[in-house]
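Hey Z.,

So I finally got round to the magnesium ion thing we talked about over coffee. Here's the setup:
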Amino acid sequence: MKSLNLLKNLNNKQKEVVSEIRKNLLILAGAGSGKTLVLIRRIAWLIYKENCAPKSILAMTFTNKAALELKKRIKFFIKNDQKNDIWIGTFHSFAYYILRIYYLEAGLTQNFQIIDIFDQKNFIKRILKKLYLQDKNYSIDNILKYINNFKNNFFNKNNNYFNKQNFFYDPIFSKIYIEYKNLCKITEVIDFNDLILYLYKLFLYNPHILKIYQQRFKNILIDEFQDTNDLQYKFISLLYNKSYNTKIFLVGDDDQSIYGWRGAQVENMYRFLKDFDKVKTILLEQNYRSTSNILKAANELISHNNTRLKKKLWTHENDGRLIYIYTAFNEFDEAKYIAKQIYKNFIKKNIELNNCAILYRNNFQSRILEEVMLKFAIPYKIYGGVRFFERQEIKYILSYLRLISNYNDDNSFERIINIPKRNIGEKTLNIIKYISKKYLLTLWESSIYLLKNKKYLNTMSFNSLKKFINLIKFLKKNIKNKPLSIIIKETIKDSGLWEMYNKSCFTEKNFNKINNLKELINAADDFTKNSLKNKNNFFYKNIKNNLLINFLSQSLLLTEDINLNKINQKINNYIQMMTIHASKGLEFSEVFIIGMEEGIFPNKISFINQNINEERRLAYVGITRAKKKLTLTYTKKRYLYGKEINSIPSRFIQELPENCIKKISYLNKKKYFIGQIIYHKNFGKGIILKIEIIKNNIKLQIKFNKIKKWIMSNYIHFYI
Ligand code: ATP
Ligand code: MG
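And the result:
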């Protein structure tokens, strides 16, 4: 029945996409043209019209948020009992599940865990120390990049990544890489890139396993295909088997490729046309998301990139509001301006705040925004930044749990050996590391060694270490056969973390930490419930690990969203703040993009890499998130890297068509008056006594609680 509606409201091109007979399809289309929408309807079409089994469908995308969105939207078309059989997720989560099932064949241990970028860096630090390397060319970030790139291009014969410093010709890097691999192996962890690499190898070297999935997934659909890297492309090629009549459906937009720095290759779209059988390409050119002004601006901006497929994008929408460009005095003024707009456009009119997003190039830019939003009492939610599972207190407790699950997890061991403080200092840790280096042992094994060979440690250190090891052993014993949330609750208490934060919970910071720990217990409860619900799901069914192991890995796979949603559960109405990268695929009626300044956006690094085109595509992504209203802001002065600098407006602003924009400046804002109450970051509340205008600025004499001061108006936080 529902299937009848599958073509409803679609334009002719979209209808063609959804209702095409089963064949390999490439949908090439600009932002907001309905790519994700047709992908969802195509899934329903395959099931209802082409009689494909739901379990034959594999739909993949790049972020958890996007995957959740797909899952949510597909529910509308698919019956509940069929929904479970469709696999929708990210590349990484797919890899995770398969590797959990075939860990043995993949060369992993049953309880392997995933490490994040912090733990990766920690490993590298250790290796550099071990190899006595202090060369600038081998900075932690460089090595991390090398390692990740190397893995992403593992099977790439003409590997161009290492033009200058080819892996095979760099003996030092190759040494580091081997050390890194070894550390991962003995501590039983893999990193994010490994997930895809191990999966690919698993399929490549185990044809009987590959066959199971080839036979199952006859319909492979991928959103945001422009952001696949070489390995992901190869993985898809491997899974695709012509003789099983597999068909691939890809949607992508070359103008929105923003993960080049992570090895994504737009060329994969052309490769697909060449490598796969009888691919039909369909272009979608009508944009349904944005007003004409916003679309014109986006089109004009992206036309400055020369290497592109030059798709046209048009809309029936009327011009709509002009794009506002606000020149702020500094970053506080910038945030204040936005807060006031939000107050005016949303809070006063009682419009849901969820419709509004503030986007920025770098995570650090959210700090001032947060500060100002708090002052204005505007509820907000941050995606990315310090994510829930990356918060210190959460990392500590997860490290306890990880160490309990796997004594060899060195990163976790190191993180909590002296948290809460138990008199195990740098010196003891260095002795443990020394033993580990000497005998090729993990930190845990080295500690056991040290407890057996008393000569290395003094009595105090010896006893402290013994206490720590006994604590971990006790915690391990204690959790046996207990439900997940109880395990977490008891570990928080028994580890001493609870007491550590609770002791001084009257500070807001610690109070929040305690709340986050409680939230983790709730998350564990949810996880348990969901696992029960998914018991019969094809993937879950085949995984034998206990809940704790799965929960720990999931906490890394899902860092982006779910959890933050929960934290702010009480308020379901908040401004969304995130990096432009994280905003891919999303839409909001009003969007602010801040920090439109040379060196911030485009980012400074892009000058060095000469990668302005990718920055411009990112700007294109940001602009095309807006449906009705768009505001870009930049500051005159900004505090950056410890000093105040004069900023230069971003070239991207210059590239927007004049007739689509309206410029506003902090200089023509509402004037101050004597007797007005203001607020200053350092001095608190005050009252204006005198006003003087100098050059382009306003100087105010203000009486604060204890002092009287002359202050530039732009340094005032806000007035009441
Ligand atoms: P992006 O490139 O940003 O990922 P997209 O191409 O995936 O964008 P969608 O998110 O699928 O675009 O669609 C953009 C918006 O346009 C959505 O709000 C969607 O509901 C709407 N839309 C798409 N097609 C139509 C249509 N035929 N009629 C009305 N609205 C449509
Ligand atoms: Mg999309």
